[in-house]
């Protein structure tokens, strides 16, 4: 089996490698737009499948893995921030509240497509404006849904509680990936 990871995320590469899989990183070009009728909780799976469908036809023995992570609070979708101001607004919105992180994965072979979503609840302590500015300046979270990485300073200093998989919040529900790849 030849495993193809369609992600430029260094975190996903690290996690998949840590699971013991050898893989090749491939690039997929597709516009990641979620139609309005898709519910927030279904959007990560939708985007993951969208990416998988945009990839070329697989060959015998190839397995494609795509993933997408969505942060939501009060049914509001928080993607990757457009700029520093957008990142500040997202972090202010998350401050002192509980939000959800959904990571959808799609594992596709020549004759089968499996898509699953895992969700985790994340509770933040209050985050001051100074802390938000420090985090954005030093960690530049512009490639992260919700404007933060759980494995970085903000996650270490401000997350009070999580209910669900740490790795789902990081961007790859490793327990699901391992289970499905093992079955394949």
Describe the structure.
The chain is of the alpha/beta class and 184 residues long. Helices cover 36% and strands 27% of the residues. It has 7 helices and 7 strands; from the N terminus they run βαβαββαββααβαα. Strands 1, 2, 3, 4, 5, 6 and 7 form a 7-stranded mixed beta sheet that branches. A hairpin with a 4-residue loop joins strand 5 (98-108) and strand 6 (113-124). The longest helix has 15 residues, at 40-54. The radius of gyration is 16 Å and the shape is elongated.
Specify the number of helices: 7
Main sheet overview:
7 strands, mixed
- Residues in helices, as a percent range: 25-40%
Task: Give the SSE order as H and E letters.
Answer: EHEHEEHEEHHEHH
pLDDT under 50 segments (min length 5)?
none
* Structural class determined from secondary elements: alpha/beta
- Strand fraction: 25-35%
Number of strands: 7
Mean pLDDT: 95
Anisotropy-based shape: elongated
* C-alpha termini separation: 9 Å
Radius of gyration: 16 Å
């Amino acid at each position: 089996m030849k495993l193809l990871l369609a992600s430029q995320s260094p975190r996903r590469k690290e996690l998949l490698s840590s699971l013991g899989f050898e893989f090749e990183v491939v690039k997929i070009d597709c516009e990641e737009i979620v139609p309005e009728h898709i519910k927030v909780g279904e959007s990560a799976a939708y985007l993951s499948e969208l990416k998988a469908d945009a990839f070329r036809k697989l060959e015998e023995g190839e397995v494609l893995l795509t993933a997408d992570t969505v942060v939501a609070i009060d049914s509001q979708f928080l993607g990757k921030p457009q700029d520093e101001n957008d990142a500040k607004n997202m972090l202010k919105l998350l401050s002192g509240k509980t939000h959800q992180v959904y990571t959808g994965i799609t594992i596709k072979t020549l004759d089968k497509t499996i898509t699953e979503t895992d969700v985790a609840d994340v509770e933040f302590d209050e985050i001051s404006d100074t802390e938000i500015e420090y985090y954005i300046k030093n960690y530049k979270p512009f490639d992260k849904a919700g404007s933060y990485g759980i494995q970085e300073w903000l996650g270490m200093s401000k997350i009070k509680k999580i209910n669900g998989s740490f790795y789902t919040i990081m961007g790859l529900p490793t327990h699901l990936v391992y289970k499905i790849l093992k079955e394949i």
